[in-house]
Amino acid sequence: MSSSPPPVKVPFSVRRDHEFLYLQEVDALITALAQTRYPIRNQALALLLFCQALQPSELCWLRWCDLNFSENLLLVTRNRLKSSRCPSGQITVNLQPLCPPEIDILQKLYTQRTTGWVFASERKQRLNERSLHHLIQQAGANAGLPLTVHPYMLRRSGLYYRAAVLLQPLGLSLRSCCLLWNWYNTNIPFSAQQEQEYGAIRRKQEEAFLIALERMKAFTGIGVEQNVIDYLLGAFLLFPRLQGIPQDYWLTPTSWHEQTLPKKFRPSFSR
Fold first, then answer.
1. pLDDT at 93
2. What is the rounded CA–CA span in Å between residue 121 and residue 41?
3. Could you give phi then psi for residue 92, rounded to 5 degrees?
4. What gap in Å lies between CA 208 and CA 20, rounded to an integer?
5. Are 49 and 66 in contact (CB under 8 A)?
6. What backbone phi and psi angles, to 5 degrees, belong to 150?
7. I want to staple 160 with a disulfide (CB 3.0 to 4.6 A). Which of 182, 225, 238, 239 is the partner?
8. The sheet that has 73-78: what strands, in order across it?
9. How far, in whole angstroms, is CA 60 from its chain's centroid?
10. What is the pLDDT of residue 240?
11. Dihedral sign for Cα atoms in the order 60, 65, 71, 76
12. Cβ neighbours around 17 below 10 Å, total
């Protein structure tokens, strides 16, 4: 008896037309999670995926000792690995401010704690990434979203939203951002038209763009700038013209709006 061939994997581009969630889809997902068996835990999962832009592994490894309710801070070990909390090599550890909805729901979850893990399973074990994926996917289906949802979509949307908050005051278009990126990070020669367009960008806009790039890099813990720029430019996917960005949607702590950068990161404006 011959075995049947394995199923053909359907490309992501066929299964869904975007790999992030629009804000109304984030709202619908969180509303659907409120109707689950463990609404407080599950809504907290979605909020931290979006607001703190956590990876599933980073979220599932959170312990209550990582939260500081007196200062409303979350310690995040952005280890970029799934299997270990203490990987070899460089580890990025961030202290990230929590927004009011996160504080409120985490305090409620804290009163229900049964283990040292922030997100525990019914068996009082650490919630694993597979269970997290299932929860988010099922919530997306219950919310009636027209695409299959996974946790990375919430993370990606949170990063796109933060990038939009950073870029919106700068008055830069998507093309201008791409020109600045190519000017500082590639050796691709500019055409005469591109040189002219680059010259039209004001010095303050240029510096602010590089500040935004460094802030995204520090927040995500991603060391390769080629990956960080994808999240920064993703702001134009969520808000094509960087218009209509709500300034009080779930996250945006006040400090995120501050356009400051340590002296060692300030650009010298030379290619």
1. 85
2. 10
3. -100, 125
4. 25
5. no
6. -135, 160
7. 238
8. 67-68, 73-78, 92-97
9. 16
10. 93
11. negative
12. 9
